[in-house]
Amino acid sequence: MIVVADAGPLRYLVLIGHIQVLGRLFDRVLIPDAVATELANTRTPEPVKQWMARRPDWVEVCAPPPIHLYAPDLDEGERQAIELARYLKISLILIDDAGGRLEARSCGLGVLGTVGILERAAQLGILDFAPAFAELEKTNFHMSTSFRQLIRERHHLDP
Questions:
Q1: Other CB atoms within 10 Å distance of the CB of residue 23
Q2: pLDDT, tens only, 49-69
Q3: Which end of the chain is more exposed for a tag (fewer CB within 10 A), N or C?
């Protein structure tokens, strides 16, 4: 399966040491130019920049298609990722931003965020969810209190 990714899931999977799960879950991960630029930005954490400089073969940077999406609340990477998925008729996008997820769904795309990726990998026995989620919680990953509680309950994690 081929997916398109925004920067968020890639960034956080690198930071928690589980980026390799994407290579096991998907055949290829496509990222538009704006996402590649964001991941290599000087303000990006060093491990992410290093990963991007030596990204695996299953990650492919793609020139963005023409942008027809009017979504002023989204950043350029989110817009390009959604348009790339639509243009290539790829049904799933990896994205965390709430506005981006909403826009992607309104365009008929399936969405999967960082937590969902960890859950899918755990279901397939690729990783242990509890320690991976604990590492994610140590980052600046944003999740609402209600979402955090839902995930903790679903996985029987201590509060």
A1: 14
A2: 999 999 999 999 999 887 777
A3: C
